[in-house]
Amino acid sequence: MAGRDENTLSDLTLLGNQKTKYAYEYDPSILEAVDNVHTERDFFVKFNCPEFTSLCPMTGQPDFATMYISFVPDMKLVESKALKLYLFSFRNHGDFHEDCVNIIMNDLIDLIAPRYIEVWGKFTPRGGLSIDPYCNYGKPGTKYEKMAEHRLMNHDMYPEKVDNR
After folding, report:
1. Catalytic pick among 63, 100, 107, 135
2. Where is the binding site for substrate, in residues?
């Protein structure tokens, strides 16, 4: 396949839209998917969002992170502009770091049913402590379930230095 045509993109409402509206409250309905036209092979898709923000649910103070989202697609891909707007919708969302990564992963599983997915939030320190929650999922009964278990047990074998933030 050399490219996509209008028929394969007809369900997208955000990409190319010059009147983008930003949601200031968490909204998973923003997410949109497109067909994966390369289902015959495994490949990783990785999104890096270095400007992720959410709020502490107790104090309302902002939390900043780089959010890493990697997945092996099955039948669907997440559309990147919709993902960007969805991640922006966390801007005024009050939740703990661990909740944010799990919510993102669950919403993407619901949307695209990937073979494998992982979400890693690398939050900047507040009060001298950084929190880097990681979660993953592999489709049950497949090699990806074993892959998820292996990656979870080995995902942070070489932690970075504190001076790299």
Report:
1. 63
2. 78-80, 97-98
Q: Which of 7-21, 31-45, 98-112, 125-139 has the lowest mean pLDDT?
A: 7-21
Pseudo-torsion of CA 28, 29, 32, 35, nearest 10°?
Answer: 90
Catalytic, 135? Answer no
Q: Please give the Cα distance from 122 to 134 (Å, whole number).
A: 9
Residues annotated as binding site? Answer: 78-80, 97-98
The amino acid at residue 149 is E
pLDDT digits (tens, 9 = 90+) for 41-98: 999 999 999 999 999 999 999 999 999 999 999 999 999 999 999 999 999 999 999 9
Question: What is the token pair recorded at 124?
Answer: 């900047």
SS (H, E, C) 89-122: CCCCCECCHHHHHHHHHHHHHHHHCCCEEEEEEE
The pair of structure tokens assigned to 56 is: 């502490």
Residue where the block lists tokens 């092996």:
72
The pTM (predicted TM-score) of the whole model is 0.87
Q: Which of 27, 35, 42, 56 is catalytic?
A: 56
Q: How far apart are CA 65 and CA 154, in angstroms?
A: 22
Instruction: Determine how many CB atoms are found less than 10 A away from the CB of residue 74.
Output: 17
